[in-house]
Amino acid sequence: MIRKTNLSFCIPKPCLAAVLLALWVCQLLVGPAFAGEANPLQPIDTSSPRSTLLGFLRVMNEAYPKGYGLLQTYLASPRLYLSPEEVSTLQEYRSNLITAERSLDLSDLSPSMARESSRRRTIQLKEIFDRIGLPPLESVPDEQAMAKEEFKRWAVPGTDIHIARIEKGPRAGEYLFSAETVAQIPEFYDKVKNLPYKPGATAGWHEFGTYNPMGVALALYEIVPPRWVVDLPLWTRASFFDQPLWRWFGIVTVLGVGLAAILLCHRLSRHWAGQATSASRWADLLRPISVVVVSPFVVLVLTDVLRISGIIYQVATPFLWTVFYFSLTWTVWVAGSAVAESVISYEKLRASSIDSQLIRLVLRLMTTVMATAILVAGADQVGLPAYSVLAGLGVGGLAVALAAQQTLANLLGSIIIMVEKPFAIGHWIKVKDMEGIVEDVGFRSTRIRTFYDSLVTIPSSQMVSSTVDNMELREYRQIKTLLNLTYDTPVEKIERFIGGVRHIIETHPDTRKDNIQVVFNDLAPNSLDILMNFFLKVPSRMDELMGRQAILLDILRLAEGMGVRFAFPTQTLHIESLSGELRTISDGPVGLPVKPMRQ
After folding, report:
1. Where is the signal peptide (predicted)?
2. Backbone dihedral region of 31: left (phi > 0), alpha (psi from -120 to 50 degrees) or beta?
3. Do 31 and 152 have their domain in common?
4. Which long-range contacts (CB under 8 A, 24 or more apart) does 256-264 make?
5. Inter-axis angle of helices 245-273 and 286-300, to 10 degrees?
6. Which of 297, 417, 542, 555 minimizes the number of CB atoms within 10 Å of its CB?
7. pLDDT (tens digit per residue) in 281-313
């Protein structure tokens, strides 16, 4: 129980509570005085059940007067603050508890709950022994006795409290209170807490440390006299869900402050994102970072300062750590996108170019690996076995891979396209019967805008396995066509026309001069064919079309000036009359005069 002291002055309780809440935050930013945990220099001998039990009792009996006993002495004194010697003794008390905790097998406790749970269960185990009593020392097996036993474990008579040898791991061969016992200690304590203490017991230890604000008092001992914190009205100790009212007030306050900080960061993020600066793409990072910072701070206050217990502790601690790891994963994911966009902007790349897509893909793969590692570490922190999570991810990944083979093939195809770069955004390509301009290369497909303005989406796996004719990468663009002259064109005029066409091509500024072909090529059924084949050196398709147009218009002017006519398809029908005469009918295009062909 708490011994009340007479103070020379009085502070209103509501004002005191408000001041304490403000000072909690200040003191926690500096760091609690008792946050450090040094390894004890003299660990408990755990070579047998006897040595483990005796060592545990010895260390706990040494810790009691340094912790609970010292605080009772301080509260009975008129002093406001703890003396330096008392602070040093409290630090020794914490070291004793750590030493005692090492006699428990804590392997089944999740890392997120191990620190506070081990402290609390160590004190509860001592309280259990103080109420049920222990057998005579000689009845507890020592190392020699256990060497003869087939089963390397011993139970306290009349209980399910076992001390068993650890068979594997870094502490193999040591005798510790078994993991099953550690898990049941709270249940055992609830069953015996109303029993009277045995002589020489460390009475009132657990109740005082659990339901009085000693965590707050010790965290603020340099700022606020501990007795002011401990000496709260009796009504504040009324319990609800195993939490006294003063603790509920602290829980609501801490959660409210944390939520307010997160909401403030969200507002700042939206404001920052609205700024027209290159740094605005990093604004989204502020939201997950706020949760990453706030959640462990809230855990620290709830467990080390307020020392929440019961179902609230068992639910809140894993939940907050889960939020922390998911937020950390969110942070990495958003940071990967921000880095990718920053690199694209710095290199002045087109947002939809293949290089930009490749940068995004590489960063996305890196963030996926990092996010997976964070989630596995988080699963281990909250008590889910990491190896099982990894195995589950492996089996799940195999199932997903089997169910999404085509999707993975498309993703691999996109990676190949981005690395090999057979074409780029804006290139004119031909794929099978498709022809058009590349508009986008995504992680699953490539989109092509055809020359009749439709959008064709081709899966990347098909793009990789097909022959792609990139018309945009041509150094020279071929112009090849036939000039069809009528059969009544004289040979001399044909020769002069061929020379004129060659001259037009040679004098054009964009033609390749060393490979010009203008020759009389064929006697076609309807025309005399002149083959015209040359190359233009122009940067784009539009320049190609304009160059082609200019040359063809010059050829038409040349033909008009020379009186050369171009042929068109005709058909000749020979009809034999009854008298044996032949009549010839020539069919030409509609609206054109019909002329007989030369026989």
Report:
1. 1-35
2. left
3. yes
4. 257/25, 258/294, 258/295, 258/297, 258/298, 261/290, 261/293, 261/294, 262/287, 262/290, 262/291, 262/294, 264/290
5. 170
6. 542
7. 788 888 899 999 999 999 999 988 888 888 888
| This prediction's pTM | 0.64
386-422 CB burial, b ≥16 within 10 A, e <16:
eeebeeeeeeeeeeeeeeeeeeebbbebbbebbeeee
Give me the pLDDT at residue 420, please. 74
Q: Which two tokens stand for residue 50?
A: 């006897």
| Nearest partner of 545 among 423, 428, 426, judged by Cα | 428
> How far apart, in Å, do the first and last CA atoms of the chain sit?
133
Looking up tokens 């006993």 gives 69
Number of other CB atoms surrounding residue 189 within 10 Å: 18
Burial pattern 47-71, b for ≥16 Cβ within 10 A else e, equals bbbbbbbbbbbebbeebbebbbebb
Query: In this structure, are 219 and 121 located in the same domain?
Result: yes
Please choose, from the candidates 309, 299, 268, 317, the residue with its C-alpha nearest in 3D space to the C-alpha of residue 119: 309
Q: Which residues contact 45 (CB under 8 A, 6 or more apart)?
A: 51, 52, 55
My answer on whether 468 and 483 are in the same domain is no
Label residue 431 exposed, middle or buried (CB < 10 Å: 0-12, 13-18, 19+).
Answer: buried
Structural domain total, the chain: 5
Given a cut of 70, is residue 247 above it in pLDDT?
A: yes
Other C-beta atoms lying within 10 Å of the C-beta of residue 477: 21
Give the pLDDT of residue 279.
63
- Look up residue 376 and give its two tokens: 């596995």
Shared domain for 466 and 478, answered yes or no, is no
The verdict on residue 52 lying in a domain is yes
Residue 592: pLDDT band by 50, 70, 90 thresholds?
very low
pLDDT in tens, 501-516: 999 999 999 999 888 9
Q: How far apart are CA 104 and CA 397, in angstroms?
A: 38
Average pLDDT over residues 1-6: 37
Nearest CA among 540, 534, 535 for reference residue 519: 534
